[in-house]
């Protein structure tokens, strides 16, 4: 139920297409439409020119309070994100689908006398989305930055500030990583340290003796599929939020274990 072969996904998409041409308004079509939604290959590409948002900060200079969170990265320090993280309003985080995305932010110096007093004009910083924050006071896109990131663009006495943000490629050290966090009956995979567009849009897994299987996003950047892959080498096919796709072959050896993290020898750039 949680696992569909990639070849089946394609067949279902084609079927749904011919059905809709025939306007076959049957219960079957409703079922097929639900399957197609899983395989939704449209990409919500974030803005790459600066747009408006608001920002606050949390924690202290050590970014305390960063652990846990909506994306499933648990401790961003051990995941390589360090203090360069941000909690985003759902208008940008998209229920976790945009976890891992990178943004360049700057204080909107020209906004008012207040911002001219507190903003550091011309300063920008780059952060990765690792958690969920409430929206701005008037429903704006909101960035709740760690203190060390906030003080790069504004005097912290300012509190809440208008900012500008844009999506930028993520620069990561080393390969893309896959944490096997499920159990022998249920594979749950956390994908992190994703370079390039940064957020995973869809994920497929293949054991050395199986076909490719589509994984459903469970929450944050955790993906699930209940096919038995014990004793097989694991390969992953990763589709990013901008549609860029890459196959990472034999990331985990056949003796892989749940609770372990496996790093590919390459990444997206
Ligand atoms: C596909 O995803 C886009 C963006 O996330 C969404 O707007 C659209 O409604 C989805 N389409 C289907 C058929 O689920
Ligand atoms: C999964 O497959 C392995 C190897 O074939 C087998 O030893 C194991 O019992 C299977 N596990 C489950 C949960 O079915």
From TrEMBL:
Keywords: Cell wall, Cell wall biogenesis/degradation, Membrane, Secreted, Signal. Gene3D superfamilies: Expansin, cellulose-binding-like domain (2.60.40.760), RlpA-like domain (2.40.40.10). It holds the Pfam family Expansin_C. Residues 68-175 form the Expansin-like EG45 domain. Residues 185-264 form the Expansin-like CBD domain. SUPFAM superfamilies: Barwin-like endoglucanases (SSF50685), PHL pollen allergen (SSF49590). GO terms for cellular component: extracellular region; membrane. The keyword ATP-binding does not apply. PROSITE patterns: EXPANSIN_CBD (PS50843), EXPANSIN_EG45 (PS50842). Residues 1-39 form the signal peptide. GO terms for biological process: plant-type cell wall organization. It is found in: Secreted, Cell wall; Membrane. Its main location: secreted. It is a peripheral membrane protein. PANTHER family: EXPANSIN-A15. Belongs to the expansin family. Expansin A subfamily. Causes loosening and extension of plant cell walls by disrupting non-covalent bonding between cellulose microfibrils and matrix glucans. No enzymatic activity has been found. This is Expansin. The lineage of its organism: Eukaryota, Viridiplantae, Streptophyta, Embryophyta, Marchantiophyta.
């Amino acid at each position: 139920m949680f696992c569909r072969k990639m070849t089946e996904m394609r067949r279902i998409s084609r079927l749904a297409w011919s059905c809709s041409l025939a306007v076959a308004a049957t219960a079957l079509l409703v079922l097929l439409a639900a399957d197609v939604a899983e395989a939704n290959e449209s990409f919500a590409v974030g803005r790459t020119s600066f747009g408006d948002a608001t920002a606050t900060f949390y924690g202290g200079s050590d970014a305390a309070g960063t652990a846990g969170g909506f994306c499933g990265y648990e401790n961003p320090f051990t995941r390589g994100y360090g203090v360069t993280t941000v909690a985003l309003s759902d208008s940008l985080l998209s229920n976790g689908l945009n976890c891992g995305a990178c943004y360049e932010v700057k204080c909107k110096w020209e906004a008012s006398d207040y911002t001219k007093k507190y903003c550091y004009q011309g300063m920008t910083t780059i952060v990765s989305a690792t958690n969920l924050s409430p929206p701005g006071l008037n429903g704006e896109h909101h960035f709740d930055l760690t203190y060390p990131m906030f003080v790069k663009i504004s005097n912290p006495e300012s509190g809440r500030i208008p900012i500008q943000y844009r999506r930028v490629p993520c620069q990561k050290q080393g390969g893309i990583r896959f944490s096997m966090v499920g159990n022998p009956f249920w594979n749950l995979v956390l994908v992190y340290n994703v370079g390039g567009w940064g957020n995973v849009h869809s994920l497929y897994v293949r054991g050395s003796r199986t076909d490719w299987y589509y994984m459903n996003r469970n929450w944050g950047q955790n993906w699930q599929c209940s096919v038995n892959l014990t004793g097989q080498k694991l390969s992953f096919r990763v589709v990013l939020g901008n549609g860029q796709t890459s196959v990472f072959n034999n990331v985990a050896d056949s003796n892989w274990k749940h609770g372990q993290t496996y790093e590919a020898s390459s990444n997206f750039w």
